[in-house]
Amino acid sequence: MNFSELFKQSNQLCKVSPDGKYLATCVQYRLVIRDVSTLQILQLYTCLDQITHMEWASDSLFILCAMYKRGLVQVWSLEQPDWHCKIDEGSIGLVSSRWSPDGRHILNTTEFHLRITVWSLCTKAVSYIKYPKACQKGTDFSRDGCYMALAERRDCKDYVSVFVCDDWHLLRHFETETQDLAGLEWSPNGCVLAVWDSCLEYKVLLYSLDGRLLSTYSAYEWSLGVKSVTWSPSSQFLAIGSYDEKVRILNHITWKKIAQFDHPATINNAKAVVYKEVERRTAVGSDDLSLHNITIGTTLFNTQSKYEICPLPVQIPVVKPDPDRANPKIGVSTLAFSSDSRYLATKNDNMASVVWIWDMQKMNLEAVLEQTSAVRCFQWDPRRPRLALCTANTKLYLWSPAGCVSVQVPTEGGFQVQSLSWHGSGDSLILLGKEQLCLCFMDTDQEDKAHLQSQDGKQTESQEMDPVSTSEHHPPCTSKRP
Amino acid sequence: MPESSLVRHLHSSSPECRTSPVRHFSRSLLPQHRNSSMLSTFCTEHNVQDCLSHISQEISSLGFPPVWAVSASPSELSVVAVLNCMYELIQLHRRNIQTLENMEMEQLKSSSEVDFLQLTSTRLKEQLELSRRENAGLLERERQLQLKVKSLQTCLKNEKEEVQKLQNIIASRASQYNHEMKRKEREFNKLKERMNQLLVDKKEKKQAIDVLNSIGRADGKRSLWKTGKTEAKHEGEMYKTLLSDYDTRQRELVLENAELRKVLQQMKKDMVSILSSRKPTLKGDKHKDDCIQADSEEEVFNSSKESVELYCVHAREKLTTSIRLQWRRLKSHVERLDSQASLAQRETRKEEMDRLMLDLQQCKDFIQTQEQLLQQQLSSPCDEETASLLSDCYMLQEKERLREEWGTLEEQRKIFERERKTFTDAAIRLSHERKAFEEDRATWLKHQFLNLSPFADSKTSQMSKSKSSFLISVEPEASAASAPEKLIRSDLDFHTHRSVPLTTQSAGELYPTPCLIPENSLTKPKREAAHVDESSIFCNGNIPAQHKLWKNSEDHCSHSLKREKNSSI
């Protein structure tokens, strides 16, 4: 595992192009394009103001930089550095800007969700979509980029409009049976649209592409309902996380619940492995307390940590939410399927330091990662069943079926990993701090070898993922790539 | 004080006195007397007469015989009567004292009892008081609790009402809120609309796009005009994607169904095979039922086969029913098997047990026979004799014959003994004669030696001739004398041999080989040939038994062989 040196970034704006070749980072009002493999700067663009949003076009040829405060969007071309495009939303304001799947249209949502403006870079044409609903997830493009589903609110009723992204033709427009629609999401195969109601009511509706209601699911009534919804990449499962600290899995044929995953405070499921992160202060002798150490600082205050496998039953720290406040910190807010749909990672908000990993074949708990601090972000490797997570400290944590490992990011200056994102190939990982970023390169070759080895010799734990031997402070060789 | 004690004594004794009126009387009198006697002695020189009369009166009143008659003189006091009376009185007094003591004891006891009872009564009273108080307290508490319950009930009722009211309020508020929300939203929408209008109308800061030069579409095509055609195309594409999705899903399902069908078919086949194999036994069990069901069963089997191939709805129904039927049957069968299994297990166990027991018995027999054989080889002759007696009836006869033989031999021995005696007598006589003759000869030789003369020569020749003749005559005698000796020795030999044949007999019995017989005959004197023959017969008689044994062992071998075969099979 190699780590790059730190780069500056602001607003955590750092994205790899869809083709995986380039890395775009925003530093204040500048946009920097680097080559992912060499990290050399390829292009540098200067925007009119501090960039608040940045997005790659699907063909990796254009980059959109939005400055919401100014109501401005600037588009840059990678091929033609001289080419420029500026969209001014004027006094109507701008709250959200995004590419259409074809990479030739930009959808800007105006303030107060008055309308969505669709700008065409081909024809400079403008079209408006009225009555967009301001909600958790009001728009969603299908995976193949053909269709866009948009939640609308007209006459105090929820509607869903399905557009053909090609020419923004309104394909379907139907009313949904929701009190207050909170979000919608296409299934990965683009044929089923899941629509869920606001948290006041547990209701999930499934619509076909042609607007037919396929099924309605409601687990319970009266108490707070759906908190998060995620499709499995195979479109086979729909996972619904709710305020009752449970995840319910619906199947794609009958749309009935086939499994329910509880998040109990005491784990006594014998099949699950509970990894507990144990921190250990580095033993600093009095003679070590030299000026040199203090100046370096980070190493002094850094703690080593490793995972220990806890004997069951395990008590998990639970924070009781304040019942008087709105949006209580309880329930399953984050759900993520691994790329092969084999595993589901979840996080229950009142157990913020714990990530749960469920096996979707056996439909049971596979592993529990109990961190020392609250989990900020976790993401699955887009190629392998490997989960990366961070807890706003100097460490990166990885889980795979073979084991669990915590890696110290070998950087100076107290770089704390606030969020992370995988490169599309799964070979590298972008670690984002508050104002810096760091690339982490996985030793894929070695790992593949290890994989092969494990397949040959039936060694379940690969060298890297051995939870005992390498769990603490994996000696990372920092290769500073030019 | 003594007086008072006396009085008390009297009082204490009063209950007894009360019984007889006489005593009562005396009691009334006595104190006076006593009092008077305290003042002056009762009897003085002067009033002896009076005293006597008084005492006699008293005594008579007490029911004693009169001590003194008035007519008689004072000196004529009958001493015997007085003494008797006194004795009586003393006895009475003693008895009274005894009773008094008893009474006192009793009184003490009763008084203590009374004390105790009083104590207990007070305690009980206290307890009663306490429990009464407690009871009162409890009653009070109960009353309070009841009151509380009542208040709580009312409270509950109130709360319920409150809840109802609140629910109503909430419902009304919710509806109001919803209504308000809608109104607000409408207003909000209106505002949005208005704002939109205004912003659009506004001149100064309009929405604008500033592109250096337009770029081509990602797919390189030119955009098309929106027409009905495009709409239709979109619809078509949508349905196409939907269709393809359904298609893929259906294919998956078909694949899955095929798999499942395969499994089902397999299961069905297995089931049918199991059930059909079971059929005959089932018929035995309840053929009536089976006959009725047979047709349907056949149909089920056939239809199931078809229905697996078929896809339509009624086929499915048929399939499910048939599966269900077969499943039920299988279940019942399995259950029956389960119940049978335990029984069968027991049976098999029993069989096994029997078999093992048989084996054990056989083994025991085998061991016993072996032991017998060993014993036969090692045992002492007498044992052997009895054993042989038991084993064969020939033995008895044999023994009888032997005894007879013994008898005859004994007689012969006696005869021999007698003969020997005569012989010895004869020998003694002969030796005497010989001695005499030797003496004669010595004298004669001396005589001859002393008178060596030609006359003497003729004499000696005559004498030698006579001597030689004598010698010849004597020699047979000597031989005869030696013969009895020999005979005796042979007799002794016979004696020793007699015991030998018995052992050899047993040995011959032990060694069934006929080669022993000549050996026996060799060792035995010729005169025992008959005996030897008998022993040989005896041996022969024993041989069949031996053979039997061999046969037995052979049987054993064959048994074991058979068993081995069985085991190998």
Overview of this protein structure:
The complex is a heterodimer of chains A (482) and B (569). Chain A is mainly beta and 482 residues long. Chain A contains 3 helices and 42 strands. In chain A, strand 39 and strand 40 (428-432) form a beta hairpin. Mean pLDDT of chain A is 84; it is low at 284-300 and 447-482. With 569 residues, chain B is an all-alpha fold. Chain B has a domain at 49-67 and 77-204. Chain B has 11 helices and 1 strand. Chain B has helices spanning 2-19, 21-39, 48-61, 79-201, 228-309, 313-378, 381-391, 394-450, 454-510, 516-523, 529-568, and one strand spanning 208-211. Classes of the chains: A mainly beta (482), B mainly alpha (569). Chain A binds chain B through residues 58-59, 77, 82-92, 102-104, 112, 114-115, 117, 119, 121-124, 126, 131, 146-147, 153-156, 164, 166-167, 169, 171, 189-191, 208-210, 253, and chain B through 181-182, 185-186, 189, 192, 195-196, 199, 202, 205-219, 223-224, 226, 230-231, 234-235, 237-239, 241-242, 245, 249, 253. Strand 10 of chain A pairs antiparallel with strand 1 of chain B.
